[in-house]
Design goal:
The protein has 420 residues and is of the alpha/beta class. It contains 18 helices and 13 strands. Helix 3 crosses helix 6, helix 4 crosses helix 5 and helix 11 crosses helix 16. It comes from Micromonospora aurantiaca (nom. illeg.).
Length: 420
């Protein structure tokens, strides 16, 4: 069958798609990846065929500039619904409306139109769309393809909509937006435009969210692009090793981090361990001398580094957190307050596999104390090992190919007319 992946224009979102795309290709299926031109080079390096759609998103230019009409992406409302006071109809309506405005900006009409044309021209049987590329759902529904969401992190949208429907609310910002987009192609709005016909979910249930969606669980398989083994990653550490990372999205897409590097390094100096910090020159600028126990590397694939580590300090990003779960590494999470990072930190702490630093203006001594706790208290390592077993017990990308084939056969529908 033909499978079209649609990705959000950020490398971290592409990376979660690559192992599943390769599993489908290895099984003999024809795979293409569509996205805004920003990702052309990144997709080319994966070995998959890239189809550019729309104009470059230039996401970093839209961040934190609400006064000039750009979308303040970091102001995306809290859809977590983890607090009772945020489960009211009024709060959810506002949160969904803000989210809709953000996603409309990330899925401009010309991009959606080109995705629809692509679906009618190439006729994919299945469209797998990133949880932020709703244009993939519109194109699939217009062209009769089966379609599935591939989650990046927690399923906040399905959870929030499930909570919102309980209020029997007559208005629906997502329906207004996506219904209008679908109407251009003679297709009625359905909930699948927001949540897919089914959802491919790489988050283990113990630290995930239960919703009413049809789910295909899959093991998280890290993909970080090209990686080179070093002496450090080939030999066991001679003392406790701690990874310190703020991920790639902050520095490469947003252009800055929301977690203070200065406080992180100050805390690192007070920890009796070797700290491997994945920070670049911009992140280090103006911070003064690097502590003697800190080794700075501009980039290192976490899948290579974490097997040698006793703990990880991270910002709650999906790639960092999921890779730590895979390798059974206890976590100290300093959430950058983007999207689901605070909720994930809470779930990791609740599972006993890490510590959630609640204060966004955390003092360095508090962070250092949290790291010492996860290094010395064996319960954190035991809980992390339990979650690792859960991750390894999920079907691999290759294992889910038959399920994707069956679901595609059940959900696709013939469409003979082209787009209007």
């Amino acid at each position: 069958m033909r499978v079209l992946f649609t990705t959000f224009a950020a490398p971290s979102h592409l990376q979660i798609q690559v192992p599943i795309a390769w599993a489908l290709r290895a099984a003999g299926h024809d795979v293409r990846i569509a996205g805004q031109p920003d990702l052309a080079d990144a997709v080319a390096r994966t070995g998959h065929l890239f189809v550019p759609v729309g104009e470059p998103l230039a996401l970093s230019e839209q961040i934190d500039r609400p006064d000039d009409g750009s979308v303040d992406f970091t102001a995306l409302a809290d859809l977590s619904c983890r607090r009772p006071d945020r489960r009211t109809r009024e709060y959810l309506r506002t949160a969904l409306a803000i989210s809709t405005d953000v996603y409309r900006a990330l899925n401009p009409e010309p991009m959606i139109a080109q995705l629809v044309d692509l679906v009618f021209d190439w006729r994919p049987d299945l469209v797998v769309w990133d949880t932020m590329t709703f244009g993939g759902a519109v194109a699939a529904m217009a062209g009769g393809a089966a379609h599935a969401r591939l989650l990046f992190g927690l399923d906040l949208i399905a959870r929030a909509r499930m909570e919102y429907r309980r209020h029997d609310a007559p208005d629906d910002p997502f329906r207004d937006w996506l219904g209008s987009a679908l109407d251009k192609y003679g297709v009625a709005f359905a909930e699948e435009a927001v949540v897919g016909q089914w959802t491919i979910d790489p988050v283990p249930p113990s630290v995930g969210l239960a919703t009413d969606q049809l789910r295909v669980p899959v093991r998280y398989v890290p993909y970080n692009g090209a990686a080179t083994a070093t002496e450090m990653t080939c030999a066991p550490a001679h003392r406790p090793r701690v990874c310190l990372t703020l991920g790639q999205s902050g520095r490469d897409v947003l252009g800055r981090d929301r977690t203070a590097s200065a406080e992180l390094l100050a805390a690192a100096a007070d920890i009796d361990a070797e700290i491997v910090a994945t920070l670049d020159a911009r992140q280090l600028a103006g911070l003064g001398p690097v502590p003697s126990n800190v080794r700075v590397v501009d980039f290192m694939a976490l899948d290579v580094l974490l097997p040698t580590c006793s703990a990880i300090i991270n910002h709650g990003g999906s790639g960092s957190m999921q890779t730590a779960l895979l390798h059974g590494v206890p976590q100290v999470v300093v959430p950058d307050l983007m999207w689901d990072t605070e909720y994930k930190a809470e779930l990791i702490e609740r599972a006993g596999a890490g510590v959630w630093i609640r204060d966004p203006d955390f003092p360095a001594p508090a962070l250092a104390a949290a790291v010492r706790r996860v290094l010395t208290d064996p319960s954190y390592r035991e809980a992390a090992a339990r979650l690792r077993r859960e991750v390894l017990g999920a079907p691999t990308p290759a294992d889910i190919v038959p399920a994707l084939e069956l679901l595609t056969e059940q959900h696709r529908r013939p469409v003979t007319a082209g787009p209007n």
